[in-house]
Design a protein that fits this description.
about 70 residues; alpha+beta; 1 helix; about 10% helix
């Protein structure tokens, strides 16, 4: 485990905490792939369609581990 034992792998730790300095909203940045909600504990793959759409994930797209809430 990485990121203080809260993320399943280095890739998830990086992508779930990525903050772009060029875009005001994470949904506008093509390099931001994962939206993590502190409120619900959900991970979502961001759909870059101009809105805030995302696909909820229960498993890590990189290592396949079940994601903790």
């Amino acid at each position: 485990m990485t990121d203080a034992n809260t993320k399943c792998c280095d890739m998830m730790a990086y992508h779930s905490t990525h903050h772009c300095t060029q875009h005001a909203r994470k949904y506008d940045c093509p390099d931001t792939l994962i939206d993590y909600s502190d409120k619900t504990g959900d991970y979502r793959l961001i759909i870059h369609d101009g809105g805030t759409s995302g696909i909820r994930n229960e498993y890590c797209p990189w290592c396949g581990s079940r994601l903790k809430k």
